Amino acid sequence: MLDVEERFMVRDMHRQGLSVSEIARRTGRDRQTIRKVINGTLEPEPKARKPRKRKIDPYVPYLLRRIAVGVLNARKLYGEISKMGYDGKESQVRSLVEPYRPRRLSVATVRFETEPGEQAQVDWGNFGYIEHNGKRRRLYAFVMTLGWSRAMYIEFTVSANAASWLRCHVHAFRYLGGVVDVILHDNLKTAVVSRSSSGVTHWNQRYLDFADYYGFTPRACQRYRARTKGKVESGIGYVRGNFWVGLEYVDLADLNRQAMGWLDSVANVRVHGTTGEVPFERLPDEGLRSIDSMPDYDTSIIVWRRCSRDCLISYEGNYYSAPAEYAGERVMVKATEGGELLVVNAHGEIVASHILRVGSNERVVIAEHYAGIPTSSPIQRRAGARQVAVPDLTPMPWPDAPLVEARPLGVYQDLVELEP
Predict the structure, then answer these.
(1) Selection from 233, 242, 120 nearest residue 182 by Cα
(2) 3-state SS, one letter per residue, for 286-353
(3) How far apart are CA 312 and CA 391, in angstroms?
(4) Are 116 and 285 in contact (CB under 8 A)?
(5) Are residues 311 and 405 both part of a single domain?
(6) 234 near 228, Cβ under 8 Å?
(7) Phi and psi dihedrals of 112, rounded to 5?
(8) 295 lies in a domain?
């Protein structure tokens, strides 16, 4: 391509009467190019523009480092560099991130919307492992998303058992301000025991009692139809892409503190991509049924144990004492959310209470549980009772060392010399 000055020279020589061949010889260009310049069909070569300085340029190295560790959420990155002083637009961040995003094939679907207070969707997300109380445990995230306002709740746990399932529901109800009419979820064993070929759902009895207590209808989506609960699926993806990537935390408690801060400062105060509104601003119009006047449902872990002959009950690798009269009997053991272990008799009475230990092979003993039991011989308690011996919980004293007569070494030498 010829620049403007060279084009002018070619045309000027042509006006002076020089032939195309002569102009080509003088300029070093081929005759076809010269003819195009003379006829006006050759466009001038555009000048390379000097790149314009952008507000985002000082933050590009930081953004590239975050992208390298998997942070591809432009809104999250925009929030991070805004705190560092960036005052440009989010669109510049999106343009920078876009080439690094993996391409995904979209599938057409029809979005299902619900009325205010009609439905919430819940699910577990798997987030790898965490070191908890000295053990490597699986890390789960419980997510609840309200169908109309899109307000969400998240809580990380090291178990997805029935107690954690119910407790997370209660915490979500308290955080969001009430209960909806229907809660939609997968066919989890903590909720659905089985499902017949005809579609009849057999519910976990405790979960059904829990639903009856709070007045909502549980509903399990059809198998292999995870998109039925697409709102909470999107919520889990949002947690992974916005909160989780690049996150540093100390322990489970610190992780949940950060998650709560993220809910209050990011997730529930952003403009939602689907509704175009802020979830917390829509939340008051959900019309949730308040549970402020209701005591929390008892979400204790309930197991049955047989009290040993030395009045100890085994739970999670540790041993807890019970009154001697229950030795050999089968009792109910309840581990509460508050960290207590309760021993309950057949009449529903709490007969022992302990603080749960997190170690192993520890013995938690209350001396009163052995009151009146002789230490040297077993006793006979009420009719049908078994004999119980009180375990000696005091350390065994070391016996005194035997007295040894001190003799001079010469005595032993005389004995050696006397030998034949």
Answers:
(1) 120
(2) HCCECCCCCCCCCCCEEEEEECCCCCEEEECCEEEECCHHHCCCEEEEEECCCCEEEEECCCCCEEEE
(3) 10
(4) yes
(5) yes
(6) no
(7) -105, 120
(8) no
Let me know whether 142 and 15 are in one domain.
no
Looking at the chain, the number of H-run helices and the number of E-run strands are 12, 14
Model confidence, pTM: 0.65
Residues 257 and 162 in one domain: yes
Indicate whether 280 and 335 sit together in one domain.
Answer: no
Q: What is the predicted pLDDT for the residue at 295?
A: 93
Contact 239, 154 (CB under 8 A): yes
Closest C-alpha among 95, 156, 96 to residue 125: 156
* C-alpha closest to that of 334 among 349, 324, 323, 325: 349
pLDDT of 290 reads 94
- DSSP string of 194-222, one letter each residue: EE-TT--EEE-HHHHHHHHHHT-EEEEPP
* DSSP summary character for residue 100: G
User: Averaged in consecutive runs of 10 residues, what is the pLDDT profile of the chain (420 residues)?
Assistant: 72 83 84 83 60 84 86 88 90 87 57 79 93 91 93 95 94 96 88 77 88 91 59 87 91 96 95 90 94 93 92 93 92 94 92 91 91 58 45 52 59 55
What does the pLDDT read at residue 211? 92
Q: Are residues 145 and 279 in the same domain?
A: yes
Domain count, the chain: 4
Evaluate whether 356 touches 300 at the Cβ level (below 8 Å): no
Distance, in Å, from the CA atom of 101 to the CA atom of 33, rounded to the nearest integer, reads: 44
SS3 call for 231:
helix
CA-closest candidate to residue 74, choices 91, 87, 88: 91
Supply the range of the domain harboring residue 32: 4-39
pLDDT at 387: 46
Give whole-number Cα distances, 137 to 103, 127, 140, 166, 171, in Å: 33, 11, 10, 20, 22
Residues 9 and 150 in one domain: no
Q: Which residue has the tokens 């819940």?
A: 122
What pLDDT, on a 0 to 100 scale, did the predictor assign at position 372? 72
224 & 146 share domain: yes
At 339 the pLDDT is 92
